[in-house]
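Summary for the funding panel

The consortium committed to producing paired sequence-structure records for every protein in the target list. Below we show the first two records in order, beginning with the earlier of the two.
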Amino acid sequence: MEKLAHKIQSAEKALVALNEVLDFGSNVVFRDAAIHRFEFTVEAVWKALKLYLQDQEGVMANSPKAVFREALVVGLINEEETKEFLGMIEARNSTDHTYNEVLALTIAKEIPKYYGLMMRLMEVIKKTYFVGVLPSIKD
């Protein structure tokens, strides 16, 4: 359980870091920083989700796409969100290859949407996970 809390916290820190560079405008350096932060944020979020599914739902999935498909099955995300997450994984995977200016622009434009998507997912995970973990406060 403690490992999952750590993964959730890591994903949240990555999301905060990504949020800091979302408004990159026409600045190429900030745009590239946003793409880089997008890469590690996607990694942190899917790995937190993977561990959540394993610990809380008993679901084993090893690849990012499988993890998001399983999140649909257990009701953490809906079908439209699943499609968006799968597109996000494709975008993230394409950033690993040879640098391409057109691809960088295309992905950068989508980062704010992906950020919102990941934020909503992490809120759902936190809400369902921490309800059973945190002690209740009594007056």
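The next record, for a separate protein in the list, is shown here:
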Amino acid sequence: MQQQAIYLACAALGLGTCIHNVGIDGTLIDDMHATARMVIKPIHPPYSGSYWTSSRPRPWLGGNLPDPDLHGKVPFFEAIERASTALEGTKSSPRGISQLLWAARGRTPHEYRGRKWGMTIPTWAGGQNYTSVHLLSGNGLYEYINWSGNAPVHRIERLRDVDIQSVSPGCTSCIILSTNERTKRALWEIGYMLENIILQATALGVKYEVRMLGHEEKRKLTPLGLSSAVTAVRLF
């Protein structure tokens, strides 16, 4: 949380940051984790003289989801004040679900070391496959895809037929966040994705509920190939 707070402050001030990390899983010193050393330097406005942009990455291939709305109407700090693990609100729509998927792991126009690998979340050393995002909706299980053919995309791929009520009863859709490796960097990435989903769902005013998955819930997901699922955001 301290690291993220510093990132937010630096972004607001137009400062670049670089973490001198302490290893994929942190470094233990006795019973405590060592802290990371950060280098903070000024950066030049990267988007035609601005630190911010509402443009999509180019080339933008889009996909079978509605394009994300890049012009938010709710101030960031207002969303933070209202954010919670559950919120009463309106029924989720296909456009809203598309927005939540993009918030979790969508593509952005910034580059990483000269490559167009920008995402809505920070990643460890530019890695792209530490985590996965899946969607349970209606009678199907889908995987969210943000990159294909060396270009950013925004689509879901159907993996199999699934009755959502047999897995997560009571909701109409469910976004599931999973790790692809047994490291803390994957769990950190899950945290960033979950935070983005909560803030975006709060800004959209949709009804949602966050579940940290226990043994019984993971047992239901294992036959679907989601044995490494960590958390789920239930939509209504």
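Regarding this second record: The chain has a mean pLDDT of 88. The helical segments are 2-13, 76-82, 94-105, 164-167, 184-204, 215-221.
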